[in-house]
Design goal:
- InterPro entries: Acyl-CoA-binding_protein, Acyl-CoA-binding_sf, FERM/acyl-CoA-bd_prot_sf, Kelch-typ_b-propeller.
- One of its GO terms (cellular component) is cytosol.
- There is one protein chain.
- By secondary structure, the chain is α+β, with helices and mostly antiparallel strands.
- It has six helices and 17 strands.
- The strands form four sheets. It has a five-stranded mixed beta sheet with strand order 13-17-16-15-14. Strands 1-2-3-4 form a four-stranded antiparallel beta sheet, with no helix packed on it. Strands 5-6-7-8 form a four-stranded antiparallel beta sheet, with no helix packed on it.
- The radius of gyration is 22 Å and the shape is globular.
Length: 346
């Protein structure tokens, strides 16, 4: 993106103002939003507007607009929900979001999966494989491949399978692994840490919830079951996991057959010790099935829900301070509001 090239070499706040100019803001507290409304989709424009106002003005103390102006009310609500987020934090989030959220030109295309044999390493099958329909699996980018890990299929396997899609040849293949493979499952978290995959939890084919921890070394393709010290998260599936500074595995939420969680657990991957730190800020509601992505030290979480309602807010955790903030919230049947409720009784 042009904005990324223009601002990536600048320090804050200059980097923020360069990004704001690219988006269509003029740098003043009362900047017009016509340009961003034309350039971005409505939900993205609302997020950018709120972060811009928080960065320039600070917390929203403006009176609520008249109910006759739904657009102005939405803008006010989006800004208001940032509460006491620091101006510097709003600047960083604005830049990071703008670097990834220019959705206007995105289009879907179908990948042509080829049938020719693949040239592969010894750990990989020498011919293409058919990929059965699968749910609850994890997809991880690694080198020039996409790794599909675990998941539920109609004909269940006994152990976790790892399949690779070669982005250059357009073929799927099975990875041969060594050591004691974990039991087959879906709804687990799979996190790439260096050259290893860290797998936690999930639910097996008999709907038994799991709380085990496994590591797959991608260089040797060898499994290792880890018996970490401390108190691990309770058995769960459909949680989210992220890694911070290549050392700390952070796990949030998920569900059991009886409830959903909003707890936060951290595994020190060097000491192999679990902890449950105190969360700060606006702690999200319990949820499962949410999506997440890390941008720098910030962990964004969208959607999910429990058996009563979907989670409508976009939240972010600063993994250095373990402080939550609400980026934006939506109401009604809009794309960012989860319409799929958690399948178990939360």
């Amino acid at each position: 993106m042009a904005m990324a090239r223009a601002s990536s070499g600048l320090a804050y706040p200059q980097r923020f103002f360069a990004a704001a100019s690219y988006a269509g803001f003029d740098g003043s507290p009362h900047s017009s939003t016509k340009d961003i409304e034309a350039k971005f989709k409505p939900d993205v424009a609302l997020i950018l507007y709120a972060l811009y106002k928080q960065a320039i003005v600070g917390p929203c103390n403006a009176p609520k607009p008249s109910s006759w102006s739904r657009v102005e009310q939405s803008k006010w609500q989006s800004w208001k929900e940032l509460a006491n987020m620091a101006s510097t934090e709003a600047m960083r989030l604005f830049v990071k979001l703008l670097e990834i959220l220019d959705l206007k030109g995105w289009t879907w295309s179908k990948v042509d999966v080829k049938a020719e044999p693949v040239s592969s390493e010894s750990s990989e099958s020498s011919s293409p494989v058919a990929v059965a329909p699968c749910a609850g699996h994890s997809l991880i980018p690694w080198e020039n491949k996409l790794l599909s890990v675990a998941g539920h299929t109609k004909v269940a396997s006994e152990t976790i399978r790892v399949k690779a899609f070669d982005l250059q040849t357009g073929t799927w293949s099975n990875f041969k692994t060594y050591g004691q493979s974990p039991v087959s499952r879906g709804g687990q978290s799979v996190t790439l840490v260096g050259t290893s995959l860290v797998i936690f939890g999930g639910q097996d084919a008999k709907r038994t919830l799991l709380s085990d921890l496994h590591i797959l070394d991608l260089e040797t393709m060898t499994w290792d079951e880890v018996d970490a010290v401390g108190v691990p998260p309770s058995a769960r599936s459909d949680h989210a996991a992220a890694v911070h500074v290549d050392r700390y595995l952070v796990i949030f939420g998920g569900g059991s057959h009886a409830t959903c969680f909003n707890d936060l657990h951290v595994l020190d991957l060097q000491a192999m010790e679990w902890s449950r730190p105190t969360q700060q800020g606006e702690i999200p509601t319990p949820r499962a099935g949410h999506a997440s992505v890390t941008i720098g030290e910030n962990w964004f979480i969208v959607g999910g829900g429990d058996n009563k309602s979907g989670a409508s807010e976009t939240v972010v955790l600063n993994m250095s301070t373990l402080t939550w903030s609400v980026v934006t919230s939506v109401q009604g049947r809009v794309p960012l509001a989860s319409e799929v409720l958690y399948r178990d009784a939360c």
